[in-house]
């Protein structure tokens, strides 16, 4: 009976350990409004206006990927003013791209609407981004920004 109990515990740990590691490697942060803590760790570049709100951020420590969703403030947000160019959605399909881990705030890739706009640029426009590509998806309610290796 002890062997079965030990085997059950070992199996449970074998399943829970990888999920726990993924959770620790992909921390989530939420800010009701813009604050300097958003830039702690330098995962998020300082290109977003100070009036953005409802900010969700997740980054992956191993994959060096970052995901951000925010609602623009009264001043709006204009990706072209930060070196981003509007591109076709087919560009997004052509690259390997992952979604944030276990979050409910990220967009559904299959629900593209005519009112959505997609932009492509550098992850960190004011410094060498090391070839990292960023995308910005503009929807009527939110902006989604994510950065990844090409």
Describe the 3D structure.
This protein is an alpha+beta fold. It has one domain (28-148). It is built from two helices and seven strands; from the N terminus they run αββββαβββ. Strands 1-2-3-7-6-5-4 form a seven-stranded antiparallel β-sheet. It is globular.
What are the salient characteristics of this protein?
alpha+beta, 28% strand, globular, 150 residues, single chain, 7-stranded antiparallel sheet, 2 helices
Summarize the structure.
With 150 residues, this protein is an alpha+beta fold. It contains 2 helices and 7 strands, in the order αββββαβββ. A 7-stranded antiparallel sheet has the order 1-2-3-7-6-5-4.
SSE arrangement:
Blueprint (H helix, E strand, L loop, with lengths): L1 H24 L2 E6 L19 E8 L4 E7 L13 E3 L1 H5 L23 E6 L10 E6 L4 E6 L2
Antiparallel strand pairs: 1-2, 2-3, 3-7, 4-5, 5-6, 6-7
